[in-house]
Write a structure and sequence with these properties.
12 strands, outer membrane lipoprotein receptor (LolB), chain A, 23% helix, 12-stranded mixed sheet, alpha+beta, single chain, 6 helices
């Protein structure tokens, strides 16, 4: 925010905002540029990736927000929450609930089953292999983005640094009361930030991805609200049983299980 803009805001009758801006500026570390070392950022990212990939079982809960830009150039955010259970190398159960979708994914190493509870329909397809291979198949073959999944794959560091043009260690921040290292990376078409828990267990606590190729730069945000490792899943945790009355639908119907409504919201009334 430059001086000219601050004067303009003040002229419009927002002196409190100017005070807030001045306080914010005073809180920014004077040595921020000196702290923003790319080698430090990649070291933190590597430690996080090595720790996560070394965990045989992971159980977590999360909140996520995704933004869209409407034809009226209005930024709208959609929120959802979920839970995930991973057992390497080939077992996964994930459940996400939002305002437009209630989706369960179950993978037993051979078959992937995706239930849209709001549709009372499910998709099944053969996917023999690992969780890493399933994620790739969902992206490449079914158009499912899974933007936060890269944090959990076995070669997370290699995947995350691919295409990175610039890396910064911003400093430290606090996410849900947990002190974290704050790192930032720039790719050709995205900027992304990661907050990693400080200490012997460098857990990813928050991820923000900003799209630079879309007008108004919409963001995707993922917050890990709880994290457990070493859990012993129930015997039937990765078994899929369709609910009574559920219909098997074609894989193309996966688009209807998205966390966004198929029709973008339009303008309202004043």
């Amino acid at each position: 925010m430059n001086t000219r803009t601050a004067r303009h805001i003040g002229h419009r009758g927002h002196p409190l905002l100017i005070v807030m801006l001045l306080l914010t500026a005073a809180l920014v570390p004077a040595g921020l540029c000196a702290q923003a070392q790319g080698s430090d950022a990649k070291t933190i990212l590597k430690a996080m990736s090595d720790y996560v990939s070394s965990q045989k079982t992971i159980e977590l809960t999360f909140d996520s927000d995704i933004e869209i830009i409407t034809p009226q150039v209005e930024k709208i955010q959609f929120a959802s929450s979920g839970e995930l259970l991973l057992r390497r190398p080939d077992k996964l159960r994930a459940h996400r609930v939002g305002g437009y979708a209630d989706v369960l994914l179950v993978f037993d190493g051979k078959t992937a089953s995706i239930l849209g509870k709001s549709l009372n329909g499910y998709v099944q397809f053969d996917a023999p292999g690992t969780v890493d291979q399933l994620i790739e198949a969902l992206r490449a073959g079914h158009g499912v983005a899974l933007p936060g999944a890269d944090l959990l794959v076995s070669n997370a560091y290699d995947v995350l640094v691919a295409g990175v043009q610039e890396a910064k260690h911003i400093g430290r921040g606090v996410i849900d009361g947990v002190e974290c290292e704050h790192v930032a990376f720039r790719n050709f078409d995205t900027d992304w930030q990661l907050w990693v828990e400080v200490g012997a267990k460098p857990v990813p606590r928050k991820l923000v991805i900003t799209s630079k190729t879309v007008n108004s730069a919409p963001q995707y945000t993922l917050r890990v609200t709880s994290w457990k490792t070493g859990v012993e899943p129930a015997a039937d945790a990765f078994a899929f049983v369709p609910p009574a009355g559920a219909q098997k639908i074609k894989p193309e119907a996966l688009i209807d299980l998205d966390e966004l409504p198929q029709e973008a919201p339009t303008g309202g009334t004043r």
